[in-house]
Specification:
- The protein is an alpha/beta fold.
- It folds into two domains: 258 residues, Bira Bifunctional Protein, Domain 2 (BirA Bifunctional Protein, domain 2, 2-Layer Sandwich); 68 residues, no CATH class.
- Helices cover 38% and strands 21% of the residues.
- It is built from 13 helices and 15 strands.
- β9 and β10 form a beta hairpin.
- The protein starts with 15 loop residues before the first helix and ends in a 5-residue tail after the last strand.
């Protein structure tokens, strides 16, 4: 039987070029966060299933890779449901494990607790471009700080990390779950349904108004409430600032001054964030020209209390590591494509070594790839072949001289 050598669907192998880029990006993020006073921790990839299914993960709780019980605990014959067979699962994010590690070590942790986590997480979802079943998260969190200085610190550190990686002209979008709850009350949704309303609203940019109405109707929400929400969405999408709180204004002002004009910060009343554990301010970072966000987070003041019996203020931010790397790979490929040069010499008039020596002089011309080729009899066919190989420029080398470097284009 032939062995399938492809990686498991939704997983990826990384060859040296991509692996080196990933490590460079990860190292830049860690170094930036460390300079802001964050310290690294690590947690196991496996967590207790009861922790992962505690209601804090929103839709991600449906995407858990569950792990079978072992040995005598695995009683298949008497199992009545899936959870009788599994007692642990692969973590779907790094925030849930963080709350566990704090609850387990709170007597030894001084507050505020500023931490970095850069590890793989796992979600059993449908793979697509930019979305994998195993992916790296880069999180920073602050536990024990109730003031908005925590939000300012998180967003300054994360925006500086993006700047250090090489991104500019990104936008930080900010909202508050309290604003969303006020809106849901205004639309007359029952409070116990608010989280489900927010989960649907979070999909607005993907499914549009009609898709949102259909999803809300499938959830059997009151039609009057649905129509009230739908009617107000165009008003919200105009970035109406009447919902801004003093805390949000303070954070936005601090970030605007910190940015020095290199990035923007905007209020977005339709911003939701999918996780169910957020209690206060929430935020995302978007890059112009790329769909989705490249990072996000928020405040989750009630989550630790579920583990310890006592609420502890907490907030965090996660940089979208995989999306950033994908963007950078695309940019690198485009750059390489634009700078690939073929030098063609005539073997009847020049020695190949002379052409190769001239290549060394071209290094200052910023070409990332320069290759030397012997001129073939069917020159037009050779140029077509070079074009298909990805070369975009070529230069002709005859009698010790390099003639014009020209774009390599297919002609009719």
């Amino acid at each position: 039987m032939k062995i399938n050598t492809n990686p498991v669907r939704g997983m990826k192998d990384f060859l040296p070029d991509e692996a080196e880029l990933r490590e460079k990006v990860r190292r830049t993020i860690i170094d930036t966060y460390t300079s802001f006073g964050y310290r690294k921790i690590e947690t196991p990839v496996l967590e207790h299933l009861e922790l992962l299914t505690g209601g804090d993960g929103g839709e991600n709780e449906k995407l858990i890779f569950k792990v079978l019980k072992r040995g005598e605990k695995l009683d298949i014959s008497n199992a009545k449901e899936e959870n009788d067979l599994a007692d642990s699962g692969l973590r779907f994010d790094l925030t849930v494990p963080l709350t566990r590690i704090y609850a387990n070590n709170q007597g030894n942790i001084p507050l505020p607790f500023k931490v970095i986590q850069t590890d793989n997480v796992f979600r059993a979802e449908r793979p697509q471009k930019g979305r994998y079943r195993q992916f790296m998260q880069c999180d920073i969190d602050i536990i024990g700080e109730k003031d908005i200085i925590a939000e300012i610190d998180l967003l300054m550190a994360s925006s500086q990390a993006l700047l250090n990686i090489g991104f500019e002209d990104f936008t930080i979008k900010i909202n508050d779950r309290k604003v969303l709850h006020d809106l849901a009350n205004k639309w007359q949704f029952e409070e116990y349904n608010h989280d489900q309303v927010f989960i649907s609203l979070d999909k607005l940019d993907k499914i549009g108004i009609d898709g949102l109405r259909k999803e809300m109707e499938l959830k059997q929400f009151p039609q009057d409430a649905i129509e009230a929400m739908i009617a107000e969405i165009p008003f919200l999408e105009r970035e109406n600032t009447s919902f801004l709180t003093d805390e949000m204004l303070h954070v936005m002002d601090a970030l605007s001054q910190f940015s020095g004009g290199k990035f923007k910060i905007e209020f977005d009343p339709t911003l939701v964030r999918g996780m169910g554990y957020y209690t206060g301010m929430i935020y995302e970072i978007k890059i112009e020209g790329y769909p989705g966000s490249v990072g996000g987070g928020g405040r989750y003041d009630k989550m630790i209390g579920k583990r310890t019996g006592k609420d502890v203020p907490a907030c965090g931010f996660s940089i979208g590591f995989e999306r950033i790397v994908d963007i950078m790979l695309g940019q690198a490929q485009e750059k390489q494509k634009q700078e690939k040069l073929a030098i063609i010499f005539d073997p009847e008039k020049d020695d190949a070594k002379v052409a190769y020596l001239r290549v060394r002089e071209l290094e200052e011309e910023k070409y990332s790839v320069i290759s030397v080729f012997k001129k073939e009899k069917k020159y037009g066919r050779q140029l077509k072949k070079l074009f298909e190989m990805g070369f975009t420029h070529y230069g002709e080398f005859f009698e010790h001289n390099l003639y014009n470097i020209m774009p390599l284009e297919l002609k009719d």
